[in-house]
Structures are given as C-alpha cells and as structure tokens.
Amino acid sequence: MIDGVLMAGRALAESLMEDRCRLERPPVEPLGDLDEDTGEHVPAPPTVLWSGPCQVQRPGVDVATPQAGEARASVEAVVVKLPVAVTAADVGDVVVVVASRDPALVGREFVVESDPAKTFATARKLRCSEVTS
Where is this region: Disordered (predicted)? Predict the structure, then answer.
C-alpha cells in the first residue's frame, strides 16, 4: 500500500517541477590548461552530473551578510527539489537554473550544502546557498 502512495506523491512532486536546471561538479583544477598562444589559463569546464526538471524554493527570509575587508556579500538559503531518482549531488556541487517560470531565476547558481536523504522522500530536496555580492 505504501508503495502506491509513495509513487503518487513522487508523481505529484515532479508535476510541480516546472523549472529546468543542471547539476554540475566544479573541476578539481579550476585553472584548467595553459593556452600556449595567449599564456592565459583556460578555465576548466564543470562536469554535468544531471540535467532536467526542478523546483526552487526559498524557505525563509534569513539572509546573512558577511563582510571580509571592504567586500560585502549576502548568503541566502535555497531548497532545490529534484526527482528522487537523482542521487549524484554532493556537497559543493552547483545547481544552475536554465529555465524557469520566474525569469529572475534563470542563470542563478546555488551551491549544494547538504542532500538530506530519507526513506519516504517524494523529492530530492537539496539544501543550497546562493552567494551574491
């Protein structure tokens, strides 16, 4: 009985995932290769782990505003919901929104802070942060 209810819950959760995103893993060597012609490092591309539907939620109004020297930034908590079948996320990975009902979300990047798995999950709810300066 629980399997049927769980499948229905997952189908409902996925029906609300109308945005599209890409889950990326930053490169180990971010400087990448040296371009012999220019003498500049060519940034290494991230590894795309998954691409597909998602839903972005902001669970509250908590915004931290850390300051380092003259630089000031804001850090906001974000929850990105993906289908349960997506298990590739790890701390430090990045979710990039590529399409959304809210045009202000397109292009935004969220850093994965945790992936709290649970037995009867209807969605993979990645706890993320967005840092803006």
Answer: 24-44
